Every structure is written in C-alpha cells, then in structure tokens.
Amino acid sequence: MSRLVGKVAIVTGGAGGIGGATAQALASNGASVAVVDVDEAKAADVAAEVIASGGEAIALGGDLSVEADAAAAVQSTLARFGRLDILHNNAALTASDFLSRDTTVTEMALEVWERSVAVNLSSQMLMCKHAIPAMVRAGGGSIINMSSGAALSADSTRVAYAVAKAGVNTLTMYVATSHGKQGVRANTVVPGLILTDAVKAHLGQDTLTGLAKATLTPYVGRPADIADLVVFLASDQSRYITGQMIRIDGGMSAHVAARTDR
Which intervals of the chain form a coiled coil (predicted)? Predict the structure, then answer.
C-alpha cells in the first residue's frame, strides 16, 4: 500500500508494542519513520526491522518530557528526511513498578504524580510545540495523540495516569483549533484493552480475563489494531477528521458493567 508515500513520520515510544507496530505500519504504507524512545537501543532494533522490511527509518533516543530532547527529535528528523508530516505521540510510562505506585489521591507520592504528568502529557505538548512549525512549512500534517479509556471512566487506581491522559484529550482539541487553518489536523486515539507486553506484565490473568469479557468483540485488541487506525488518521483518507477522540476498545465503553458476563 502507498497511502503515505513521500510522508515523514515521528513515532514516540517507538520501541514499545504499539509504537513498534505503528512504525512498521507507517513504513509499509510508504512513510519514512523516525523511531523515538527513551531506550535508544530498542528504538534501533525497531528501525532495523523497518529497514529489513524495505522501509526507511532512523532511531533516536531521548526523554521527551525534557524540551531539549523533544526539540532535538524533531530537528534530527528534519535533518535526515527534510520534512515532517506525521506525529504519533505514543510515549508513556508503562513500567509495572512505577504503575504500582500510581494508586489513589490520598496515597499519591508527588514525585509519581509529577513524573506521570511529565511523560504522559507534557511530552505530547512539547512534541506538538516543536513539530507543528515544521508541519506548517511542509503544507500541513497530522498529529495522532494517544490517550486512554482511563481518562474517560474512573478506576480505583492509576489516578495520575488517567488525569494526564485526560489532559491529552483537551490538548488535542486545542491543537486542532489553533492550527487547523494551517493544515495541521490533530486527533486522539483512546484505546481500551490492547495486549502489549507491558499490559501483560502489569495486569494479572484474572484482570485480563475480566477485561476481555467486557469487550463486545470475540477477541481483544492487538497493537496492530492501533497501528491501522493511526495509518488512517495520518493519511488523506481522514482529511476531514480533526479534534476528535476516537475510541478503539472492542465496544468496552458502549455498555454498563452489569453486562460483562455475556
């Protein structure tokens, strides 16, 4: 397929399950891809896989909650490929030892709150800040921010993560509103259960089984499902879609919890 030939994309959190699948999908549709991750070695592995599959990719390291690193990721992409058309803001804190400390407000350590907001929200703002001018110079672009179903329905834990992701939803609307007439679109992907290695490590089997029952499809989500949606939102086929939150959760959010035994 060639929906994205001539386009250049940045995928943050590109070494993870969703990021890696998205980098591969963007490349297979013709885009050149900068794979960015705090773990540069793993980002290099993903970039190598893209290249081995016939795509074009580079690997970049950096903590994108640090503005200098975010700016450098954009500048390095421009230096290598000459333009920027697509930004997939996928970087997030997924380490199970960190998430286990993200509990309730009364138990919250300030350092956990601040780090969660920095990585899950501020990094997306900083990447937008530095990517948008490059997109405008290229004639426009598409930003796909990653949120979470946790931002729309409360749980008993992960309050810092959820609040940060709720901020992503609002950030997207403001970016779309401020830069739409310059040709820059922005949308939010709101996933439900996606079976990545990080999810499997953090959630026990009983929890996964319960969440699987809550989906309306006979299967749960895979990273490739997110990647396919990102490719669509990056392409001209979605040219009239901007400022939206798009749920991809197997229908989990379409019914009340009492129906999960079906």
Answer: none
Q: From the candidates 161, 174, 219, 240, which is the catalytic residue?
A: 161
What are the strands of the beta sheet with 86-89, ordered from one edge? 56-61, 32-37, 8-12, 86-89, 141-146, 184-191, 245-248
219 is catalytic: no
Please state which of the four CATH numbers 3.30.360.10, 3.20.20.370, 3.40.50.720, 3.30.1840.10 is assigned to the domain occupying 8-242: 3.40.50.720
Structure tokens at 236: 């001209």
Helix (H, G, I), strand (E, B) or coil at 145: strand
pTM, full prediction: 0.93
Task: State how far the Cα of 145 lies from the Cα of 227, in Å rounded to an integer.
Answer: 12
Query: Which residue type is seen at 208?
Result: L
Which tens digit of pLDDT belongs to each residue from 216-235?
998 888 999 999 999 999 99
- Taking the domains of the chain in order of start, what are their residue ranges? 8-242
Show Cβ contacts of residue 194 under 8 Å, excluding neighbours closer than 6 positions: 17, 18, 220, 221, 222, 223, 225, 226
Cα dihedral value 58, 62, 64, 69, nearest 10: -90
How far CA 213 is from CA of 207, 210, 231, in Å, comes to: 10, 5, 28
pLDDT digits (tens, 9 = 90+) for 115-137: 999 999 999 999 999 999 999 99
